Amino acid sequence: MKHRIVVLGAGYAGAIAAGRLAKRLHPDDTEITVVNADADFVERVRMHQVATGQDLKRRPLTDIYAGTGVDVRLARVTAVDADRRTVALIDDHGTDEITYDTLVYALGSTAADHVVPGVAEHAYDIAGQPSALRLRDRLAHLAAGGTVLVVGGGLTGLEAVTEIAEARPDLDVAIAARGGLGDWLTGKAQQHLRGVCDRLGITVHEHTDVARVDATNVVTRDGREIPAQVTVWTTGFAVHPIAAATTLAVADTGQIVVDDSMRSVSHPDVYAVGDAAIAEGPGGKPLRMSCASGIPMAWQAADAIAARLTGQTKFPKAPLRYFNQCISLGRRDGIIQYVTADDRAKPARLTGKLAARYKEFVCVGGAWSIAHPVLYPVRRHRIVATRSEIRSAAS
Q1: What is the pTM for the complete model shown?
Q2: Domain extent at residue 189
Q3: Where is each FAD/NAD(P)-binding domain found (predicted)?
Q4: What is the pLDDT of residues 104-124, one digit of tens each?
């Protein structure tokens, strides 16, 4: 009987994990199923482009996995029973339940509203394609002179505000950052960022904490009102609540707690990758929710699963560290901030057109890696243990 591997979610982490497993394991011994709500792989790092009216290349999952043996199941996950090893699904045909021997949980994250009043009713986000398309439609119908406020001064907020300001110079675009603008960057990179905001006519509200979002403005903690016919909320991400409703060990954030092989510390037949997992990075700091974390986490999980199933005592260690932060500032400008392994800024950086090309190369490379999860020829190995032996060894 084949070993059933189920991968929940086909974002960067889940899609790469599934493809890498298919490259590592013999199809006569394994059955790999990817469960995803969308028929296409979505380049989440480009959602600010989608919001401003740009169209991305379609990447159907069935095309990506053609010839690999990976089965694509289009459905939404509604529950996981980690003790019974089952996953509850709903699709166009109704509800269903599938079983697994090994689970890779990669359901990712969505926008976090931080329980700020009015966010759910009035704000837009770019955490996924449906929400980016809603913002796209709203911006398309916003007349010249309309006010747009991006709340959040992190990477997503900077990319969103500059993309919108460049695409719609007829709008009054602003950003509200809780701290200083780009205050984690080096001084020269901060100067470049401020210069770009000036060039694009972006109003910057620093050290500004938004307390409420209304239909046409936001209200700050100190009682100021900032005009905003469109509020874009980019203050962080929150994981889907499915894992927290299971018997899996989760952190206060709802993320699954994993060891250095991305295996659940409470259920050894479950692995978690990407935003859905909390893993320790360099210096004992948790890896941040990002594509830069999710891809190596996927490599690590897939290699660990393949090694354990095929009787290997050791498996490769993925580089669970950071090298740079890539920030697009519209289509023709950007910042590449080089960082330490634990994500602290180094003096070195790239800015301007060269940085924009660098960031584009990274985005293209990330999408390319989905269909090419292993960069060198590999032999698909046979599983050497029975299902009961694998479970016994994992316990």
Answers
A1: 0.94
A2: 113-233
A3: 4-302
A4: 999 999 998 888 999 999 999
